[in-house]
Amino acid sequence: MSQTATRPSHIHVTPNESGFGAEITGLDLSQPLPPDVLAEVKQAWADHAVVWFPDQPLTHDQLEAFTLQIGPFGHDPFIAPMEDRPHILELRRAPDEKARNFGAGWHSDWSFQDAPPAATLLHSKVVPPVGGDTLYADCARAYDALSGTMKNLLDGLVAIHSAALPYGTKGVFAQETEARTMKIIVSEEAESPVYTAGIEGMTQAESAAILGFLYNHMTRDEFVYRHKWRANMLTMWDNRCTLHFADGGYDGHLRVMHRTTVAGDAPH
Ligand code: SIN
User: Fold this and answer.
1) Which atom of ligand 1 is nearest to the CA of 257?
2) pTM for this structure?
3) How far apart are CA 193 and CA 267, in angstroms?
């Protein structure tokens, strides 16, 4: 990843020291970006995988319009979207909510889809005074740090992804006893064989050993960036080469985020 602190012309990119994650300023995302500026944003996103734009008070229309400048909308299953906004999910947790905060587990969004999203965009509306960070893991750097022998082993493997664990009729959300503001739609559709449930051609024990190693490896401190939110910040991550984890720690406080996704290609 590039370590360049600034880019010429339109935008100012300030990367984290690791090169993973960068702040972008000098833009007004409420207006359509000229093609050369958009190209710079996309290049910064490709270089740093997670980019965030502070001080962007966007309306729903503006969030949708910026998302569409990145690419066509992805398909968001299992969660009821905002009324009249089929492409915006509201991630809302009320101050008195006891249910575990949404996204509290390492994942990439909708990885069980044939073509998972290329990008996720998350816009902060109400940020709690404590907690509520999002952690991001740099899977590209984690892969680079593996031995050649391990890379060779992994390169020949195919993981099985499934939505059943969280969203199936016997899944985590279906068994929840605490009230939740967000409307999760548990479904038999989630029971299809898709989510990192195993590795093709391996026993459960073999899969668990390899996947367990990988999850531990990818989420080591050196690969993780802890993102702190301020209200009206838009963050966009590459959903193909990162994992993320929504940290809790804000019981008693409201947190409201609006999320869109950009369609990706089928992995091969
Ligand atoms: C998510 O998993 O997409 C939500 C992340 C967050 O709310 O911080």
Assistant:
1) 7
2) 0.90
3) 16
